[in-house]
């Protein structure tokens, strides 16, 4: 009691430790909640159908271990084609979003012109209004452009879907770049294009990683637009290709879980690659 009275900072320190403990407990609980479905899919993808329904939470044993689902997916379907389509669409849309979004963000953050604020508000509305509300109009436009059942239609839609958020995130980061760097480059005779590509883009790599993660996951997981704009067998994506294993009366759960496992692995790898830059981007955005 005397020690606490002599050290008034002790109660504050204990409350601080308790707060940190609760924060870590909350983060751990959220991590378990987020990873649990992925772990459940991976575990049950290598189990027999009977073992899946008997105890879906149990790890596979020697008796229940099977790779029949992966054999069916890789041997009897065009899964590699669907996988390639998803990868191509996602990477192409991501490239367009980062490139065009960074250019637009540079224009909005660096230059003052009539309609700057109106355009910024318009882009903010693009974040708030779901693109699926315009599905009918988008389909009519793709029919007129003869882009139905092409991967180009999906790339255009996902680019339009991701641009508003990308521009808002990148423009905020670009405003934090010291003007002295840009002015020094201009004094050395460096053009605006070289300033953009050689000065600005390297400085906002954390923001680009944040945009990449936030835009590639919805594009990879989307089922709505592939089903409407590209339902043919040669343009199916992974999420649409999985649907062939789900029937009205019978569902091949081994193949479904195997296909989902193969589909989720690329996202885990890309997230692991971009995770450090993503965390830097999120924390930098928090203090800005």
Task: List strands and helices in order, with pairings.
Layout lengths: L1 H5 L2 H36 L4 H6 L13 H9 L2 H32 L5 H13 L6 H10 L6 H24 L4 H9 L4 H12 L1 H17 L2 H6 L8 H5 L10 H35 L1
Helix pairs in contact: 2-14, 4-14, 5-8, 5-11, 6-8, 8-11, 9-10, 11-14
Summarize the structure.
Belongs to the binding-protein-dependent transport system permease family. This protein has 288 residues and is mainly α. Helices cover 76% and strands 0% of the residues.
SSE class: mainly alpha
Please give the CATH class of the largest domain.
Answer: Mainly Alpha
Beginning-to-end CA distance, first to last residue: 43 Å
Helix content: over 70%
Number of strands: 0
Give the biggest beta sheet: none
The figure for the number of domains is: 2
InterPro entries: MetI-like, MetI-like_sf
Family: Belongs to the binding-protein-dependent transport system permease family.
Transmembrane segments: 21-43, 87-106, 118-139, 151-174, 195-217, 255-274
Subcellular location: Cell membrane
How would you describe this protein?
The protein folds into two domains: 25-65, no CATH class; 77-248, Orthogonal Bundle (MetI-like fold). The chain has 288 residues and is an all-alpha fold. The longest helix is centred in the N-terminal third of the chain and has 36 residues, at 9-44. The protein has 14 helices and no strands. Keywords: Cell membrane, Membrane, Transmembrane, Transmembrane helix, Transport.
């Amino acid at each position: 009691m005397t020690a606490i009275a002599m050290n008034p900072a002790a109660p504050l320190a204990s409350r601080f430790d308790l707060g940190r403990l609760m924060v870590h407990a909350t983060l751990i609980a959220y991590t378990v909640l987020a990873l649990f479905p992925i772990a459940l899919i991976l575990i049950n993808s290598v189990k027999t159908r009977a073992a899946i329904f008997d105890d879906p939470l149990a790890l596979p044993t020697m008796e229940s271990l099977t790779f029949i689902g992966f054999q069916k997916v890789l041997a009897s379907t065009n899964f590699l084609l669907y996988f390639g389509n998803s990868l191509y669409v996602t990477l192409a849309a991501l490239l367009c979003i980062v490139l065009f979004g960074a250019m637009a963000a540079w224009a909005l953050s660096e230059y003052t012109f009539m309609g700057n604020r109106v355009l910024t508000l318009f882009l903010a509305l693009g974040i708030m209004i779901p693109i699926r509300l315009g599905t009918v109009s988008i389909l009519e436009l793709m029919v007129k452009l003869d882009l139905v059942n092409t991967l180009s239609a999906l790339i255009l839609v996902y680019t339009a879907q991701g641009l508003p958020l990308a521009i808002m995130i990148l423009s905020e980061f670009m405003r934090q770049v010291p003007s002295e760097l840009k002015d020094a480059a201009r004094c050395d005779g460096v053009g605006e294009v070289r300033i953009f590509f050689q000065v600005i883009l390297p400085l906002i790599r954390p923001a680009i990683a944040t945009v990449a993660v936030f835009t590639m996951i919805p594009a990879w997981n989307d089922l709505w637009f592939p089903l409407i704009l590209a339902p043919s067998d040669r343009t199916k994506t992974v999420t649409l290709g999985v649907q062939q294993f789900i029937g009205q009366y019978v569902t091949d759960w081994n193949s479904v879980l195997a296909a989902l496992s193969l589909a989720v692995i690329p996202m885990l790898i890309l997230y692991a690659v971009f995770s450090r830059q993503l965390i830097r981007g999120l924390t930098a955005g928090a203090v800005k």
